[in-house]
Amino acid sequence: MNISAENICAKTPFLGMTHSDLVDLCQQAGVKPVHADHLVATVFRYYQSDIDAISTIPNILKTYLAAHASMFEPECTAAQLAADGTRKLVLKMADGKAVETVLIKGANRLTQCISTQVGCAVGCTFCLTATAGLSRNLTAAEMVSEVWAGQKISGGQVSNIVLMGMGEPLHNYHAVAQFLEIITDAKGMAFSPNRVTLSTSGMVPAMYRMLEDKWPCNLAVSLNATTDAVRDQIIPINRKYPIATLMQAVRDYIQQRGNKRVLIEYVMLAGVNDSLDDAKRLCVLLDDLHCTINLLPFNAYPGAAFDRPNDAAVSEFQAVLVEAGLIAIIRQSKGRDISAACGQLITSIKKRNDSGRL
Q1: Total Cβ atoms within 10 A of residue 5
Q2: CB within 8 Å of 233: residues ≥ 6 apart
Q3: How many Cα atoms within 13 Å fall on the side-chain side of residue 166?
Q4: What does each C-alpha distance from 114 to 56, 87, 148, 340 come to in angstroms?
Q5: What whole-number distance in Å separates Cα of residue 137 and Cα of residue 220?
Q6: Is residue 10 predicted with pLDDT exceeding 90?
Q7: 146 given a catalytic annotation
Q8: Which of 84, 134, 295, 314 is the residue whose CA sits 20 to 30 A from 71?
Q9: SS3 of residue 221 by DSSP
Q10: Is 254 helix (H, G, I), strand (E, B) or coil?
């Protein structure tokens, strides 16, 4: 984002500014560019929302910021803590729209699941988020504010970021690109690109574009089927970008990223895509790929058209993949008791947004 005098007058959201944006802003305010470093360190790493309280920047810059930039901190309207330590936050944006972000505890890390849209337009039939449809894209500033809120609540312990919350990240390309620049900039939030993962349902042209643009993140692909007939039904985007096209994009991505490992996500639906024949077909699809497979037994919810496979079926499926030499991990769902698990975000938000109550 290039900040000019014209668009600064509209009060640019501070949390959506890159380091270079802040350098430009300092120059326009008539102060040294080094003050951009002070702003970034205090706001993006210590989560200070009161610019006036920052003692390391001059008053002339504070006055300029007050006139030309807005500091928005989302309101946390609800927080739930699961038995396994997973925490779900409902964050209210400036226009009243709300999104959910999830903090997931691991052995040596705290992962935050970030939403990129209010709702989702992809329409995956097994995903609860899809039932709400798409309301709008989130801005880069709003996505940064999710991380900001998560870090403030966790005391700065978030170590990993996954763009796997509400929305298809590649449907919101420009804002997500700006978000990634801000959070991975060594002079910004300074997350390692190796600790940031973006998940897509298979937006093939955008996958090639993010490769060309050298996005600083890992890639996860939600595959979830081994035949086009099944994938057409559960992920409608497959009718436009079928499995063969998607897998070629994954191959090209891995090759051009220097054999960078890709995460293949596979939601297991009882009687739909969990047979041993599916496992064998998956082995063929992934045989020549440098990837890790996350097997995710379906998180059932009231009114769902699918069932969760039993543990034995999941284990047998995994065994076929491992026997073929693939890395396959059964991912245990976190936060299921507070509807914070994969594919479960949005119902409470949709009800609040529809009723106008937050």
Answers
A1: 8
A2: 125
A3: 36
A4: 31, 13, 11, 12
A5: 20
A6: no
A7: no
A8: 134
A9: strand
A10: helix
DSSP 180: H
Q: What is the mean pLDDT of residues 193-221?
A: 97
What integer is the mean pLDDT of 57-86?
91
Under 8 Å between Cβ of 116 and 169: yes
The strand pair at 291-297 and 262-268 is best described as parallel
Buried b / exposed e over 106-145, threshold 16 CB at 10 Å, is: eeeebbbbbbbbbbbebbbebbbbbbbebbebbbbbbbbb
Per-residue b/e over 245-265, b at no fewer than 16 CB within 10 Å? ebbebbeebbeeeeeeebbbb
Token representation of residue 247: 């897998």
- What gap in Å lies between CA 344 and CA 128, rounded to an integer? 5
Q: Which two tokens stand for residue 134?
A: 């798409």
Report the distance separating Cα 180 and Cα 39, nearest Å: 19
* Buried b or exposed e, range 90-105, using 16+ CB within 10 angstroms: bbbbeeebbbbbbbbb
**Tokens coding 352:** 């609040």
Burial of 235 (0-12, 13-18, 19+ CB in 10 A): buried
Distance (Å, rounded) from C-alpha 181 to C-alpha 12? 17
Measured from the Cβ of residue 275, the count of other Cβ atoms closer than 10 Å reads 15
- Please confirm, yes or no, whether 342 is among the known catalytic residues: yes
The pLDDT tens digits for 244-282 are 999 999 999 999 999 999 999 999 999 999 999 999 999
Most confident of 4-8, 304-308, 314-318, 334-338: 314-318
Q: 69: which strand partners?
A: 12
Q: In terms of residues, how long is the chain? A: 358
DSSP-assigned states of every residue in 131-177: GG-EEEEPPHHHHHHHHHHHHHHHTS---EEEE-SSS-GGGGHHHHH
- Residue 265: phi and psi, rounded to 5, are -95, 135
Q: What is the predicted pLDDT for the residue at 320?
A: 98
Catalytic pick among 100, 142, 146, 265: 100
Domains of the chain, start order: 5-70 (1.10.150.530), 75-355 (3.20.20.70)
